[in-house]
Amino acid sequence: MTVRVERTFELPAEPDRVWAFIADPEKRARPISVVDDFEQHDEHSATWFVKLPIPVINRHVKVETEDIEFEPPTHVKFVGKSKVMRVVGEHTLEAVDGGTRVTNSFVVDGKLPGVERFFKRNMDAELKNVENAMLEDLGLEAR
Length: 143
Hints:
By secondary structure, the protein is of the alpha+beta class. The protein has one domain (2-137): Alpha-D-Glucose-1,6-Bisphosphate, Chain A, domain 4, CATH 3.30.530.20. Helix content is 25%, strand content 46%. It has helices spanning 15-22, 25-29, 115-137, and strands spanning 2-11, 35-42, 45-50, 61-71, 75-81, 85-96, 99-110. Strands 1-7-6-5-4-3-2 form a seven-stranded antiparallel sheet. A hairpin with a 3-residue loop joins strand 4 (61-71) and strand 5 (75-81).
C-alpha cells in the first residue's frame, strides 16, 4: 500500500526567506518526529536515522536521501530509500499576496507491515511540525 499526502499552507514571508529553509536538507529533516539523527553528506544528500514506533522495527533505520530536483528558489524534490520504505517528498513555493504558499507532497511506500499505516495516521502532524519549524526559522510564532 502507498500513502500519498499533499498539504498546502501560507507563510507571511517572501519566497526567498522560505527557500532558505526548504533548500537545507537538515532543516527539512529535523522537524520530522521519527528522525532521531541526521548526517549530511553534501548539499543534496544525507542519511536520516529514523525510529518508527511499529512492532516489526526495533532499531534505527538508515534512510539514504537525495535531492533529485533542485530548482531555486521554488522547488525541491527528494527521494529517501531504506530497507523498510521509500519516500518521495516535494516542496514547491509560490509567491502570493502577503507571503508564500508552500505545497508539500509526500509518497511513502512501505516494505514492512505498519509503515504506511504509521504515516497515514501521522502525516498531518508531521507536516504541521515542518510548518512550525519554518515559522520558527523565519522568527515568527508557531501556530
